[in-house]
Amino acid sequence: MTVIDRQTISYRPIRDDDREFLYQLYASTRADEMKMLSWNDAEKEQFVRMQFHAQSTDYANNYDTNQFFIIEQHGQPIGRLYFDRQPDDISIVDITLLAETRGAGLGTLLLQEILDEATRTGKSVSIHVEHFNPAMRLYQRLGFRHVATNGVYHLMRYDKDLQRFFSECVVLQRVHRLRKQWLAGKKERERLSLGRRAGAAAAARDRQRFDIGQLEVERTRILER
C-alpha cells in the first residue's frame, strides 16, 4: 500500500500558465467517454477543449475563483480543488486528480481534512456527484449522504448532526434486527421445549401403560394359581 507523505502535498492559487495543465486534467476525466466515439483524435480534442472552455467559463461566472486551487505534490501540479465557501457550508465545486495519482488514498486524505475542518467550525460539506462516478462509494464511505438529485447529479452532504442521526438510525436498525433474531430464537427454543415436554409426556404415558400392563400380567398369574 502506498504511503502518502502529507508534507509533499500543497495548495496554491491558479495562475494563467495553468490553463494547459487544467485542460489535460479535465481531458483525463473524459478519456473513457471519448474511447466510445468513432471520431478521430483531432475531433475528440476539439470537442473536449470546447467542453473545458464552457466549464471554465461557467465556473468563472458563478464562483469566486480566488477559492480555486492547484494541488501540487513535490512542487508539481497533480490536481485541482475548487471551493465555494459559505457561512454554514463548505461546497466542493470540483476535486480532480491526475489519473496516475488516483486510487492511492490521496483523495481520501484531502477530503478527510475538509471534513475535519467542517467539524471544527460547525459547518456542513456538500458536493455534486454524477450518479455513475466511481468516487460515489468514497463519498458514502466518508459519511456523505444523498440529499437531492439534479439531472445526472446527486447532491451529497456531510453534516456532523446528519451523520449522528444516520449513525443512530443504524444503531436502531441493528437493535431491531437483533431483537427480531432474539424473538425468532425464543420461538424456536419454545417450540423445541414444547417438543421435549410433549416427548417426555408421551414417554411417561408409555411407561404408565407398560406398568399397568405388567400389573395386569401379575394379576392374571395370581388368579391362575
Description:
There is one protein chain. Helix content is 56%, strand content 22%. The protein has 225 residues and is an alpha+beta fold. The protein has two domains: 6-158, 3-Layer(aba) Sandwich (Aminopeptidase), CATH 3.40.630; 160-225. It has a seven-stranded mixed beta sheet, sandwiched between helices. A hairpin with a 2-residue loop joins strand 2 and strand 3 (76-86). Helix 1 packs across helix 2 (41-62).
Layout of strands and helices, then pairs:
Elements: E1 9-13, H1 19-35, H2 41-62, E2 68-73, E3 76-86, E4 89-97, H3 106-121, E5 124-130, H4 136-142, E6 145-150, E7 153-158, H5 160-224
Parallel strand pairs: 4-5
Antiparallel strand pairs: 1-2, 2-3, 3-4, 5-7, 6-7
The CATH class name of the largest domain reads Alpha Beta
**Overall domain count:** 2
* CATH homology-level superfamily of the largest domain: Gcn5-related N-acetyltransferase (GNAT)
Q: Which structural class should the secondary elements be placed in? A: alpha+beta
Q: Architecture of the largest domain, CATH level 2?
A: 3-Layer(aba) Sandwich
Q: What percent of residues adopt helix (DSSP H or I)?
A: 55-70%
End-to-end CA span: 97 Å
Radius of gyration equals 34 Å
Morphology: elongated
Q: Would you list the SSEs in sequence order as H and E?
A: EHHEEEHEHEEH
Classify the beta-strand content into a percent band: 15-25%
